[in-house]
Design brief:
Bound molecules: zinc ion
Number of strands: 12
CATH class: Alpha Beta
Length: about 290
């Protein structure tokens, strides 16, 4: 019995050890004179360096803050002045407290402030010190970075950053560039129609030379984002047909309508979860006019 228990526990212990020892591989990619993207673990980070200082878009997980700072200092020494959060999820805001302690000012939408306050409490250094409702512009490092709120897309607090001079856009998790379907956080005010509307709006604002930083996955361009939009629209169409035919959530899930797209899915976001989230989004009262 004891031996069986040990054999059973062994893989768990090994998993835990390899997780702790796992080295996160960081990769820096230059997009313009002042702008870089940092891939690590969690949401992609944009780094602006220049004569005014340093600012980031998103800061991944708390345990990575020192590594992220080390990566940033390869580009330019000094403290990070601002961190813009694209939304409230922990793989994009986990470093907020560490960066705030190091003197950074966190900027985010009001709904990100509200959700981080609910999670971490009033006065927490995870909270933005500057929050806004619709849009704002950061005039820094010779760049005018427009920070735009898109309502009810991936969440209810999404912002997209348009770097006009560099001709780069950071979409946050409105765009998962992983050749698959995205996470629509319907429990945090997200909706599939909102994601499609936001992607359409971003496409109207960019041109063929724009570099597109997604929330996850490699940097791409306008045609990459257009492909993603077409995939979302196709998935929506398939889901609407399935909802019409099978009616209930469980019956739609059992029918596996999205299987016809032949996509691959991550462990944390399998096809069934995507189906459930899309169903809930497409059948919620907010979408009843669709
Ligand atoms: Zn997210």
């Amino acid at each position: 019995m004891k031996r069986i228990l040990i054999l059973f526990l062994l893989p768990i212990v090994l998993c835990a050890t390899s997780y702790v020892n796992a080295q996160v591989e960081f990769k820096l990619q230059q997009l313009s004179t002042h702008l870089h993207v940092l891939y690590g673990q969690g949401g992609n980070i944009a780094i602006s360096v220049g004569k005014d200082g340093i600012y980031l878009v998103d800061d991944q997980f708390a345990k990575l803050s020192d590594d992220i700072k080390a990566q940033v200092s390869k580009l330019q020494p000094g403290a990070t002045e601002f961190v813009i959060n694209t939304h409230h999820h922990g793989d994009h805001t986990g470093g907020n407290e560490n960066f705030a302690k190091a003197g950074s000012h966190v900027i985010a939408h009001h709904n990100v402030y509200r959700r981080l306050k609910d999670k971490h409490g009033e006065g927490s250094q995870f909270l933005p010190v500057i929050s806004f409702s619709k849009d704002m512009t950061l005039h820094f490092n010779g760049e005018h970075a427009s920070i735009w709120h898109y309502a009810n897309a991936h969440t209810d607090g999404d912002v997209v950053i348009f770097y006009e001079q560099a001709n780069v856009v950071h979409t946050g998790d409105i765009f998962f560039n992983l050749s698959s379907l995205p996470f629509v956080d319907v429990d945090s005010g997200g909706s599939l129609d909102g994601v499609i509307a936001a992607v359409s709006s971003i496409l109207e604002r960019i041109d063929d030379k724009t570099k597109v930083i997604p929330g996850h996955g490699p940097v791409t361009n306008k045609s990459g984002l257009l492909e993603y939009k077409m995939l979302l629209e196709q998935a929506k169409k398939i889901m609407l047909v399935a909802i019409e035919k099978h009616t209930t959530l469980d019956a739609v899930v059992a029918a596996q309508p999205l299987a016809e797209l032949k996509l691959s899915y991550s462990n944390w976001l399998p096809q069934e979860r995507v189906t459930r989230l899309f169903y809930r989004s497409l059948t919620s009262s907010a979408n009843s006019q669709e």
